[in-house]
Automatic annotation (TrEMBL):
Compartments in which it is found: Membrane
Residues covered by the Glycosyltransferase 2-like domain: 5-164
Alphabetical keyword list: Glycosyltransferase, Membrane, Transferase, Transmembrane, Transmembrane helix
InterPro entries: Glyco_trans_2-like (IPR001173), Glycosyltransferase_2 (IPR050256), Nucleotide-diphossugar_trans (IPR029044)
Segments passing through the bilayer: 229-249, 261-288
SUPFAM superfamilies linked to this entry: Nucleotide-diphospho-sugar transferases
Name of the protein described by the UniProt record: Glycosyltransferase family 2 protein
Membrane topology, record value: Multi-pass membrane protein
Top-level lineage group: Bacteria
Amino acid sequence: MKLISVVIPAYYEEEVIEHCYESLTRVMRHTNYAYELIFVNDGSRDRTLEKLTLIASSDYNVKIIDFARNFGHQAAVTAGIAKANGDAVVIIDADLQDPPEVIESMIAKWEEGYDIVYGKRRKREGETWFKLVTAKYFYRFLNYMSDVDIPKDTGDFRLIDSKVAHIFNRMSEKNRFIRGMISWIGFKQTYVEYDRNERFAGETKYPLRKMLRFATDGIVSFSSKPLKYIMRIGFVTVILALGLLIYSVCAKLIGSPTEPGWTSIMVAITLFSGVQMLSLGIIGEYIARIYDESKSRPLYIVQNEVNFEHIQTSNRS
Ligand code: UDP
Ligand code: MG
């Protein structure tokens, strides 16, 4: 019997975790595959872990990786994939925004011979217009900026074949943007469409701060275009500055009455220092990444693992 691993990152999800377990179990039992549900507790200090441990004590299909602290969604998914034994690995959020039933159609596509099946969101329910608009333009912008083709309107909800998972496990970069990394790997890809639901309970663990961090990772990790644009902006401002210089020298030479000139100086100073700050910031992002990579610290620290000694061979617990 083929084995499907499902990786579920969970951060303060005590309100949904049981329901998540039940729905996933229902869906996976309905299939003809052995399965394992790998929950990664990303340093939640609520009752998420307690509830998971209880579930795992009576169901060996449930495995737990417990992080020493919050390392972030992308690190949690990475840890889950690293421990997955399946012939295919499914990544899904704990909050049931991605309907577990879609996994069945993903598996069907995989059986047709696709190595990566990603979930493409048809519509998203129960999200603020701010999230919808920022997400939409982020994906458009990302695609424009980035050097690999990252599918629009997809999250990390996807199925990957074990050979893709093995390659993914060898990618050691620290600033992880998983959907980009998987696109970068290549292989035969397709998608299934679905409607994204409202969160079952609890609230988003992606505040604006984390969203911005994530967006920066996506762009800077997959493109050097920002550096090229800095060059261009720099080039244009230098020409502007030269023009200004020639103009002021000529004005002085032909002896036209010197104006107070305060405005033009202020404009020049603010404009150019603005451009410089921006450029330094972008360059800084790249340098920070070089620094992160050179430290070669582990991506996450696991403090406990549960049920990994049990290898699933059937569809029952
Ligand atoms: N998550 C995590 N670590 C974090 C933030 C989020 O493991 O630091 C998990 C969270 O429990 C959920 C998934 O990542 O299973 C997606 O998070 P969320 O639903 O809050 O994001 P949104 O759907 O609002 O983008
Ligand atoms: Mg969510």
